[in-house]
Amino acid sequence: MKLTARSLGPLCVVDVAERRIDAAIAIAFKDAMRDLSDGSSGDVVLNLAQVDFIDSSGLGAIVAAMKHLGPNRRLRLVALGPAVEKVFRLTRMDSVFAIHATLDAALADHGG
């Protein structure tokens, strides 16, 4: 599982360096997200630019990461490819997450 985190103003940006978030890596993804997000206190931006495929297990892992942040922090998603965006739209998870086309758009929405 290849995730890297960096601070960008008040946000913790997590870059996913995987092509797939599926059943094979969902647990490792969830654990890595927990470890990375515990090191910050602000909102978390999940950069999915390199992800081409997500299945229900991957979606569940992203939802678990969001729930782990608690009620005072948000998980924002950026740079969803067409196939990944379709999964979020079909499952109506696009109404649960703040989804932005770019990192700059997420920063602007956050006020930073």
UniProtKB/TrEMBL annotation:
Residues 21-110 form the STAS domain. InterPro entries: Anti-sigma_ant (IPR003658), STAS_dom (IPR002645), STAS_dom_sf (IPR036513). It holds the Pfam family STAS. Coiled coil: none annotated. Belongs to the anti-sigma-factor antagonist family. This is Anti-sigma factor antagonist. It comes from Lacimonas salitolerans.
